[in-house]
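[step 3/7] fold_predict: job queued, chain A
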Amino acid sequence: MAKVTFDDELDATMRELEADKNSMFMNLKHYHRDENLEIKMLRREQIYPNPINEPYMQDVTEEQIKFLYDNIKQNGLMHNLVVLDDLKGRYRLISGEKRWTAIQKMSKEEYEDKFPNGIACKVIRPDIEFTNDDEWRILLECNVLVASAKPDKKQMQDLIALYDRMGSGKDEIVNYLKDQIGLSKLTIERTYGVATAIPELRELEEKGIVNTTAMRVLCQGDKKNGLEEIQRECCRMIKEEYEGQVINEPLAAEIKKACTGIVKGRETESKTCRAVRAEISKKITKGLNIIINYKDKDIAAMKELEKTVCIKELEDAQRKIGEAIKKFQTGTETREK
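[step 4/7] structure written:
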């Protein structure tokens, strides 16, 4: 049986994407298609790292690069690099930065011995509508969807967040990645929760203030049911009341329960306030009608109305009613005299 290469896997993944006519992923531009690709032999100095990939390279160790260096030196480059033509004579890496870094470690003699004609690269030619999100998506899809190793957690989270931002729903993302990566639905759902959490909460996890299991607790729920507001309240409480503590799963459950109560209470209070304002608005309207259709016997009713108007936002209306009462009282006294 022929060995399946990285390029074979990439092509197969793109074919599956195009075959799924009902998927929202069909709405995305596929720069992996053959008409947007060509194989070029490039010199290593023509290729440069992708700034998008910088955060993901920080955890790469010298041992990993050394392993790739030895492997390439002995066997050559087994998989093509994927690069983006920047239309300025140079090529930005999309996939294969660790391999490229290993090649950079080679001496001039070693490099020319292994790559006398240059490095074989798959070149993506962007059109004028190519966006930063398109580039980021391609980079992450190459690293997450078609990588032979287990997907990097951070890259998978960022890919999910990108899909979410580009308009796909939770179920669609989860089912798609489950089929593509082979991880369990539960694992991907948990990853989805973390990936779509508010930035403040993700920052707390990255700093080690909220551990992994606690993060799962704080990310359970639905945005439609106020999850983001609950997460913001949790972040506030953690920073103000649990400074210096590492938030574990049981503590996260307590915090979330308390914050859910605060948010729900706030929502109830808000509904009550809206109802009160609506009622007072009716009273103000009634009061203004009384003023317009003034009669001596309505003075007492207008004074009673003035007492009920106490919400700050309606102070101006209250003042106007008070002034109107005084004006008409003065007119009544004048007529009586």
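[step 5/7] annotate
The longest strand covers residues 37-42.
The CA atoms of residues 141 and 159 lie 7 Å apart.
exit 0
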